[in-house]
Write a structure and sequence with these properties.
This protein is of the alpha+beta class. It is extended, with a radius of gyration of 15 Å. A 3-stranded antiparallel sheet has the order 1-2-3, with helices on one face. The mean pLDDT is 91. 24% of the residues lie in helices and 24% in strands.
Length: 71
């Protein structure tokens, strides 16, 4: 049996202009046929609702969500 490996806690980041290239790479991995927006269009339309998970200094994923109404 191996000893347990230490587990890092991810850090969550708001979308920023420097995240566009990593977002574009991850988006392409989804296999979606939608064209990529420009960096400015992405930041203005999707950026406010996008966050990134960073683990040990590397972006490992992103999430996107919108609040549609009070529950």
């Amino acid at each position: 049996c191996y000893p347990p490996r230490p587990v890092s806690t991810p850090r969550f980041l708001n979308a920023a202009p420097e995240h566009f290239e990593v977002w574009a790479r991850l988006f392409r991995e989804l296999g979606v046929d939608d064209p990529l927006p420009t960096a400015d269009a992405w930041l203005n339309t999707q950026g406010p609702d996008t966050f990134f998970a960073e683990l040990d200094g590397e972006i490992v994923g992103y999430g996107y969500g919108q609040v549609l109404g009070a529950s």
